[in-house]
Amino acid sequence: MSATLGIDFGTSNSAASWITPTSTHAQPIALEGKATSLPTAIFFNAEDRSTHFGRDAVSHYLAGTPGRLMRSLKSLLGSSLVLEHTEVNGQAMRFLDIITVFLAELKHRAEDQMGTAVTRVVMGRPVHFVDDDPQRDALAQAMLLQAAQAAGLPDISFQLEPIAAALDYERRITQEALVLVADIGGGTSDFSVLRLSPQKKNATDRTQDILATRGIHIGGTDFDHKLSLERVMPLLGFRHIGPLQREVPSSVFFDLATWHLIHWRYQPRALREAQALSPDYADVRLHQRLMRVLHERLGHHLASDVEQAKIAASTHGLAATLDLAYLETGLHTSLSATHLGEHLHLQLQRVVQCARDCVASAGLEAGALDATYLTGGSSALTPFQQALRDAFPGTPLVQGDLLGGVAAGLVWGAAQ
To answer: Measured by CB atoms within 10 angstroms of the end CB, which terminus of the chain is less buried, N or C?
Structure first.
């Protein structure tokens, strides 16, 4: 049976859907238990040399199993780092090959659910992997294509993620509409303005209906990075003024707040550099906490706590407590909805300005939109939604399938 697989390979989460020539709807694929999203995470178990994926990967790491956790690998595409080697269970492995391992597992799980082999693949891609650098952007797609081919995925094509989300949304509307699609993922924020209509949902050429696309390299991991720097890293010495009235050098804190850079700080040379910071501290406890994080490899634990607190504060509007007792007895900090608005204000303004630019490049006034369609996990952030309401007053916000909408739209586009 001929089957098309849509893959939304995300910075934080991945999803997949499939369709056959006779299907009347896209079918989401359960990638981990009943969940149709799979955290883009790999854990290489150092004890038994097994490899774990998604939530299972993160849980092994947080349980203290010896090994290596890797997340946000998509962020490396378009940079020279993706072709560099890193040590995995005593062996050198390219980051690009680790992406291949993840995609091969996703293919295996998809085919297991489908009960048939994949014959065609449509992969989502952001409007820009890399801002303002077409050459690196093209390189990023080429690297993703290389990894996908090495994973055994056949007949691969690409579609912009916000356009895929729009095609998914189009199947739910009853009349023509001008729609701004906001796809806010882990690594990028992408926008498109499209003219959608139930009468056109099966048309093969939609070129004239795509009025504009824009994107910016800011997403959920950038929000996590900022929140970590503001709420957690000061407990380790970030912005701490030492005995010579100088701040502690900040590079170690920036790396610990960045998912795909954390592991570099566990290397022997980096440990020596961090230990050498001791004279820069007026409060020795802060340095002791930093060294414990590094020696016990707690960086990903901290990053995960920040991410979960962000989600809790945005979802419930209440202050979330980050219990850091695993670092020091009684140590904790908080993250509230107010903190989200304060700390993320500048980043969210840049993202919303990208949305404004997209609408303007479509030749439209803000009030001409019939709806703003939200997809991508980070589009659920309360401060972001409020910023969109302020930018486009009176335009309804429609929340779609935040983690599965792009994957569904990818296969609908292929079917058309």
So the answer is: N
Please state the length of the chain.
416
Give the other-Cβ count within 10 Å of 321's Cβ. Answer: 14
Residue 346 buriedness (CB in 10 A; 0-12 / 13-18 / 19+): exposed
Query: Token pair for residue 313?
Result: 């504060």
In a domain, 414, yes or no: no
Which residues lie across from 346 on neighbouring strands? Answer: none
The two three-digit tokens of residue 82, written as one number:
């993706």
335 and 354: one domain? no
- Please say whether the dihedral angle defined by the alpha carbons of residues 132, 135, 136 and 140, taken in this order, is positive or negative: positive
412 in any annotated domain? no
* Cα separation, 402 vs 399, whole angstroms: 7
Same domain assignment for residues 154 and 226? no
Q: How many domains does the chain have?
A: 3
Amino acid 206: pLDDT:
78
| Tokens encoding 167 | 């095609």
Closest to 374 (Cα-Cα) out of 191, 195, 227 = 191
As a whole number of Å, the end-to-end CA separation of the chain is 18
Kindly state whether residues 251 and 321 are assigned to the same domain.
yes
Burial of 31 (0-12, 13-18, 19+ CB in 10 A): buried
Average pLDDT over residues 368-374: 95
Residues 131 and 241 in one domain: no
Q: What is the DSSP letter of 58?
A: H
Q: In this structure, what CATH number is given to the domain that contains residue 396?
A: 3.30.420.40
- DSSP-assigned beta bridge partners for residue 4: 19, 120
User: Mean pLDDT throughout 270-283?
Assistant: 97
The per-residue pLDDT for range 329-366, each reduced to its tens digit, is 999 999 999 999 999 999 999 999 999 999 999 999 98
Cα dihedral 364, 365, 366, 367, rounded to 10, equals -110
Q: Do 339 and 378 belong together in one domain?
A: no
Lowest mean pLDDT, pick from 32-41, 162-171, 352-361: 162-171
Give me the amino acid identity at 220.
G
Using alpha carbons only, what angle is made at residue 157 by residues 156 and 163, rounded to the nearest 5 degrees?
A: 145
Residues 147 and 269 in one domain: no
Distance of CA 148 to the CA centre of its chain: 18
The structure tokens 């930093």 sit at: 290
Which two structure tokens, joined as six digits, stand for 249? Answer: 């050098």
User: Quick one: average pLDDT of 111-116?
Assistant: 91
Residue 413 lies in a domain: no
Residue 40, CB-side half-sphere exposure with 13 Å CA sphere: 27
| 74: containing domain | 4-161
